[in-house]
Amino acid sequence: MRPLDHATLSRLMTHSQRLKHLVNDLYELSLTDLGGMTYRKNTMDLAALLQESVSSMQAQFSMQHIELALHLQNAPVIIFGDHNRLQQLFVNLLKNSLQYTNAPGVTQVTLKSEQQQAIICIEDTAPGVAEEHHEKLFERLYRADSSRNRTTGGAGLGLSICKNIVIAHEGKITTSNSELGGLKITISLPCAKDHL
After folding, report:
1. Cα–Cα distance between 6 and 68 in angstroms, integer?
2. How far apart are the C-alpha atoms of 125 and 80, rounded to whole Å?
3. CB-based contacts of 2: which residues, under 8 Å, 6+ apart?
4. What whole-number distance in Å separates Cα of residue 20 and Cα of residue 117?
């Protein structure tokens, strides 16, 4: 038995938080697999939602000495989607970038519309992911055997949940190498038909 001291209690809290996140992720993933996750879709400005998501993460990025930059086009980008689920998607992707980007570093978020699609790119500085791992990153429980695979990393469920949210919005999500030196995640979502 270990002595009951502050360090032991701190370790127990950390492990229990990890288990809580794992259980929550497994629950969310099972809901998306079964079609049981509820979506309340409305016409919305994706630019405003991205601004809100980035703002909510700004302090965490600053604490880790990683610059979080957002680049939006001047006009609104209107889609038909679920505000809460899309915010969950963007925050999950930003947390992933925060966790796997070396400090000092940069995470860059861009939004543009082209060919009736809203295109969101989230990319970061080193380390990157070898190309042979890109297609598998969205598989559940998969973690690339690279410098982005940290001992403090998650269980490999977050990107699977993200993919399911994107698919539920009739969109696509892909990964590629970023010109910044890390990973680039690109999401395309259909623009609302009344606003094309």
Report:
1. 34
2. 31
3. 8
4. 36
Report how far residue 16's alpha carbon sits from residue 144's, in angstroms, rounded to the nearest whole number: 24
Q: Is the pLDDT of residue 36 over 70?
A: no
Residue 116: pLDDT above 60? Answer: yes
Q: How far is the C-alpha of 118 from the C-alpha of 9, rounded, in Å?
A: 46
For residue range 68-111, what is the model confidence (pLDDT) as tens digits?
999 998 889 999 999 999 999 999 999 999 999 999 999 999 99
**Max Cα–Cα distance, the chain, nearest Å:** 65
- pTM for this entry: 0.79
- CA torsion, ordered 26, 141, 64, 120, to nearest 10 deg: -80
The length of the chain in residues reads 196
| Between 14 and 118, the higher pLDDT residue | 118
Q: 176 Cβ partners below 8 Å, 6+ apart?
A: 134, 183, 184, 186
Residues 6+ apart with CB under 8 A from 138: 159, 160, 162, 163, 173, 175
Which of 90, 101, 63 lies closest to 158 in space, CA to CA?
90
164 Cβ contact partners less than 8 Å away, ≥ 6 residues apart: 29, 32, 33, 37
Q: For residue 55, what are its two tokens? A: 């703002």
Average of per-residue pLDDT across 3-15: 77
